[in-house]
Amino acid sequence: MLNIEHLTKRYGDHTVVDDLSIHIQPGELCAFIGHNGAGKTTTIKSCCGILQFDEGNIMIDHISVKEHPIEVKKRIAYIPDNPDLYEFLTGIQYLQFIADIYRVPAGVREERIHHYADAFQLTKDLAQRVSEYSHGMKQKLVMIAAMIHEPKLIFMDEPFVGLDPVAAHTLKQEMRSFCDAGGTIFFSTHVLEVAEKLCDQVVIIRKGKLAAFGSMEEVKGSSSLEDVFLELEGEKDHA
Amino acid sequence: MLKILLQLRLRELLAGLTKRKNRGYAKNLSYGAYLLLIAGAYVFCGYSIFRMFSDLAKPLASLNLGTLYFGYSSVIGFGLAMIGSVFAAQSQLFEAKDNDTLLSMPVRPSAILASRMITLYIQALLYEALMIVPSGLAWFISSKSFSFVHILNWIIPTLFLPMIAVTLGCLLGWVLAIASSHVQNKSYLQIGVSMVLLIGYFALFGFVTSEMDSFSAGINLLTGQTLKSIWPAYQYGLACMGNWISVLNVVLVSAIPLICAWVLISKFFLHVVNEHHHVRRKMYVEKELRVLSVRRALVWREKKRFFADGSYVLNAGLGILMAPIMTVAFLIFQGDVRSFLNNVLEIPLKNGQFAQEFSNATADIAMLAVTVIFCILTISITITAPSLSLEGKTIWHAGILPVSGLDFLLAKVDLQMMLTVPVFLVCSTVFQFFLSGSILARILLLISPVLMELLMALAGIVLNVIHPKFDWTSSQQCIKRSLPVTFCVLGGLVLIIGSAMVYFQWVMEVMSPTTYLAVCTFIMAVLCGALFAWLRTAGVRKLSGYYSL
User: Fold this and answer.
1) B393 vs A84: CB contact, 8 Å cut-off?
2) Does the ipTM surpass 0.90?
3) For a Cys staple, B460 with which of B82, B160, B188, B384, CB 3.0–4.6 Å?
């Protein structure tokens, strides 16, 4: 589903992502972990077609992001860490706009909007302007917007930030259901406990380079993900 | 503390205009040109006002009516400052994005307000100075009174007068901030109040100029009583003519209300800035959802953004009303317009300056004049020029949604065309019934303004793609004070004035105005094609570089 081959991204002399290669299969829930400034957001934005990368290739559902970006974008969704939304629209207007862009048919869109809005307990606020939403409500709205066109692959950048416990629990459930139904999720997070419980695959990046990649069991073994992560950080510092 | 806050305010005001190392030579050159253009526009307006007031100053100086002259010019200056102050006060005092940050720090609300009111005073002073400085200079030159005392008597009250506009602006801004927190669609309130202020200003301007005309004609000197009822203006007039008691009166009547307003608003500041949840929450009711095509959805979004921001509508879209107003005015004053055109345009015909072929087609003149005026009106409509900047931090949507960059940009052009073309076509059709002209002139009346509008829309979006500003704290920075808007308007003016100059200097003896306008229309079409080609290639490439900002 997601094939990143030798991805390299530079800003001037500084290499932010260096020769990164990752392969994620359909139906997998993959956590993307790294320290601040490791290159997680750059990698995700490159996959979404938001950032132009310098070297390498990214294929989503066997389609190149560089050569056919529009086709790729029809199949994916992106949830940023700090969503800036159109404040002049109401919640429902924003969802309708997204549904129009992704050409979600009329009957289907109503059903999906209502399903996800109920799941995230946002239904009663859909008539309010986005300008009146709290950060958490905006997070929920952008998640609903990401799901209504039933993408094959969802990229999330620290999705649990700003969510209340109920919403975080709902999100975890929806993420699991989505992947169980064949979808793929690739998300960055600092909440290692959630990643450990929820995910099938884990990618650890350190200073732009791949530090570890594989199934959760392969990467963490008998220790915790936190121990593995700290060990990888500490190991390189001692070397 | 006040000094720190003032530095912050001034830095914000000047952000984007100062040279930056990593901005590149070309962009710094553009910003330099932009500053020069602003200064040039200021000088040009000031000179025009100077010329206008010079004609009034001569007769009034001979009648020793300086008090009335300065009094009435201060009224016009006050009106100008007032229009600028009201919404600036509302957005800068009560809706500033750093309110929460500053209030969470050990900073008194009075200090926050003082720093902002000083910035408002500087803005009001610049607005008033545009009127008062040229009118003052016109008086001193006409009356030949240039002594140090005379100048001082003029400068001191002039420096204090804008405080009245700031005081009223802050108080009205306070009322608007409270009223806005109780309505769902704040932009409609803003538009309504702005229209009232604008109409009031033009009525005031008309009243003052007719009063001044009657003085200079020696008619109805008793109308000077009207000025006495506007006591601050009357005192200003007396102060400028050397009355030191009046100077003191102006200082006191300007400064004391401002200080009182500052104290009063400081007391209620916290309450007002937090007063934004009084709007009754609308409960969502499930209903059938409408479906739009991708292109229509993009245009719909642009339309929603446009009408959600009162200052966007007023500054970028008010020109749309001018064509219908002009059409209605023509229908009412038809006779006067026709005789004016005959009187003005008979001259080149009598001197044989127009091309031979044209001398038999005098009926085209009125139609061509309307066409050119409509083309000039399109310059005032600048909907696309700030539209990319207004995306602000939501620009990431353009990167992630499955729409091409070109469709994304063209939706902005579509909105401008959608709002303007029907209006121009209807007005052009009305004129078709009331004016006579050749077939070519009739066709040009229909298509030239539309093509000019398309040219302005494309030029606006091209300029905004080249010079976007996504990190704004107030949308006014993009709508009013941005480089793309300024260049777009000035570029349009240069195009029209330049074309007219070329015709009257070199072409009028070899080509009729109708044929020349047809040539210009063709050139506009070519320019539209060139701008569209740039947008399709380099424009889309540039846009993709902004997705991650």
Assistant:
1) yes
2) no
3) B384
